[in-house]
Amino acid sequence: MACVEARNLRKAYGSTVALAGVTFTLEEGRILGLIGPNGAGKSTALQAILGLIPNYGDLKVLGRDPWFDRDILMNDVCFIADVAVLPRWMKVSQALDYVTGVHPRFDRAAAERFLERTSIKSTSRVRELSKGMVTQLHLAIVMAIDAKLLVLDEPTLGLDIIYRKQFYDALLNDYFDHKRTIIVTTHQVEEIQNILTDVIFLNKGRVVLESSMEAFEARYLELLAPPEHHAAARALSPLHEQRLFGRSLFVFDGVKRQMLEGLGDVRTPSLADLFVALMTPHDNADREAAA
Amino acid sequence: MTTPDTSSPAPSRGPNPITDGLLRDPGFRRLYWSVRREFWEHRATYMAPAIAAGVVFIGFLLGSGSFAHHLTVSMDGSVEGEAERHKLMVAPYAVAAASAIVVGLIVAITFCAGALYNERRDRSLLFWKSLPVSDLTTVLSKAAVPILIMPWIVLGVTLVVTVAMGLVGSAVTLAMGQSLQDLWSHLPLGFMWLCLAYGLPYVALWQAPVFAWFILVSAWAKRVPMLWALGVPFALSIVERMASDTHVIGHAVWIAIVGGYGEAFSVGGDGEAPIQTLADIDIARMLAQPHLWIGLAVAGGFLYLASRLRRSAVTL
Question: Which of A75, A94, A108 is opposite residue B40, by nearest beta carbon?
Answer without folding.
Answer: A94
